[in-house]
Amino acid sequence: MEPHEIFLKEAEKKMTDIDFRQRVLPMLDFMEANRVVRVKEFSNLDLAKQRAAYTRWKVTENLDKYLVDFEGSIIRRGGKVLWAFDANNALMEIDAIIKRTNAQKIVKSKSSVFHEIGLVKHLRDKGNVIVETDLGDYVLDLMNEKAYHPNKSVTNQKLENIGRFLNQKIKSSLEADPEELVSDIRAEIRNKFFEADLGITGANFLISDAGSIAISENEGSARLSFAFAKTHIVLAAIDKILPTLTDLDLFFPLLSSHSTGQQMTTYNTITGPAYREDFDGPAEFIVILLDNGRSNLLATQDQRQALNCIECGACSNVCPVFKTVAGMHSYQSYGGGPIGQVVGPLQQGFKEYQYLSNASTMCGKCTDVCPVKIDLHNHLLRNRHENVVQGFEKTGEKLAWFTWKKFMLSRKNLNRPAAIKNFTFKQFYKSDWGDQREFPKIADKSFNQLWREKNGL
Ligand code: SF4
User: What is the pLDDT of residue 445?
Assistant: First the structure.
């Protein structure tokens, strides 16, 4: 099945799953409500967003300079930078490091970029032992399920199912409450950190002048993933750059308030390789900078603003489509939600991923909530335009619009009996409308007919 067919199938299935909707929608609304309360603490939220948007714009417009500066700063601090053109390239570099360091046990923390390159599956297929250390990802890994939400991966799972799996896999009590389950998982994972030879993390931000990486989290699993391991690999996309450490004053609070509704997350770690006087930290520190289609996005002057995203997930929480289609994995691309829909076709190609740009109500709520002022819904419109320019518009769609235009420009057709109009309308759109929704009916009389009757014409 093609990605767009799976997407539509998933959407239709979840749209009518009342149990799923009753469980998941209140959680998304709760996250949005937390954001609304928290952002009131900014003395001038709009100014903060403008400053953040400007900083990210400056970085994106000068990305080549900032990336080279970042590389230089990392090298000066004793680290190493590798450049990965695509997912395969990144996986090859990681394989080579594992081989060279003879790493037997690997721990990894949470980051969307790992899903993007299929890291865990790749390493396991190669026979490596790799442990998910983020609580949500750990649970999903046991259950062999995919993440629902960028920040709350297990939002869609039933607590009793999680309990059942934890009982089977790590012998948690079937009567355990959520707090007990969390402490059982912690106990299970804790030793893995101590035993790890290699820790792999992502990064929320790459600090260009300091040669540091900044990670924002609530569990401490990213910090522990490299505290004891001899080698620390950071896999980060090239668009994660911030110019200076002081930019974090603005970006950490914006990220935490918009993602989890917190003033600050519990752990905010800034790191690099360990110095001689440090008690812990990795002896070897390697940053892999991943492109994977982002240069294509950078090349589009109108759309490159999408690279400014800080992955807070706020746009997904308010998106009526995200709420309907059962989360990130349903989109069948690297990311989901409004930002995933914008970058998907640009990063992965219009031919296969254009359907993402169409899955929007154009309500604009995503644009309203974005902390870096990305004009999300208009980027979706630009994508639709680009799809036509690139010639990937489907023949059926072209025909439908041609007929629609002919029909709408003909007074005679518009005034035809409603039964004929309803029949014609259904022939073109019924298959896309789906079986679960009632097809809208065209009014018995056109506006022109009503007007004529009213005025006795
Ligand atoms: S596009 Fe904006 S709102 Fe959406 S995840 Fe990125 S920064 Fe957050």
Answer: 92
Do 217 and 76 belong to one domain? yes
Closest ligand 1 atom, residue 310 Cα: 7
d(CA 388, CA 278): 57
Indicate whether 414 belongs to any domain: yes
Q: Report the chain (457 residues): mean pLDDT per 10 consecutive residues.
A: 86 84 88 96 98 98 97 94 98 98 96 94 96 94 86 82 91 91 93 96 96 94 93 97 97 97 91 75 94 95 95 94 79 86 93 92 97 97 94 85 87 91 83 79 92 92
31 within ligand 1 shell (Cβ under 6 A):
no
If asked whether residues 413 and 371 sit together in one domain, one would say no
Identify whether 429 is part of a domain: yes
Per DSSP, the three-state class of 401 is helix
Residue 339, ligand 1, Cβ within 6 A: yes
Residue 217 CA to ligand 1 centre (angstroms)? 17
How many distinct structural domains can be found in the chain?
3
Residue 221: CATH number of its domain = 3.40.50.10420
CATH of the domain at 5: 1.10.1060
> What is the reported pLDDT for 270?
87
Query: How far apart are the CA of 364 and the centre of ligand 1, in A?
Result: 13
Any ligand 1 atom below 6 A from CB of 59 = no
152, 370, 373, 376, best to mutate for ligand 1 pocket (most atoms within 8 Å of CB): 370
For residue 335, report the distance from its CA to the centre of ligand 1, in Å. Answer: 12
Q: Which residue has the tokens 């039933």?
A: 158
> Is 156 strand, coil or helix?
coil
- Specify which residues 84 forms β-bridges with: 290
The pLDDT, as a whole number, for residue 457 is 83
Residue 102: inside a domain: yes
Treating both helix axes as pointing N-terminal to C-terminal, what angle do 337-348 and 376-389 enclose, rounded to 10 degrees? 30
Domain check: are 63 and 191 in the same one?
Answer: yes
- Of the CA atoms within 13 Å of residue 202, those in its CB half-sphere come to 24
Amino acid at 433: W
**Is 119 inside any structural domain?**
yes
The response to whether residue 372 sits with its C-beta less than 6 Å from ligand 1 reads yes
342 close to ligand 1 (CB < 6 Angstrom): no
| Residue of 315, 365, 375 best suited for mutating to test ligand 1, as the one with most atoms within 8 Å of CB | 315
Q: How far is CA 452 from CA 61, 255, 411, 456, in A?
A: 57, 57, 13, 6
* Ligand 1 atom at minimal distance to the Cα of residue 369: 3
Which residues span the domain enclosing 429? 409-454
State whether 117 and 239 are in the same domain: yes
pLDDT for 326: 63
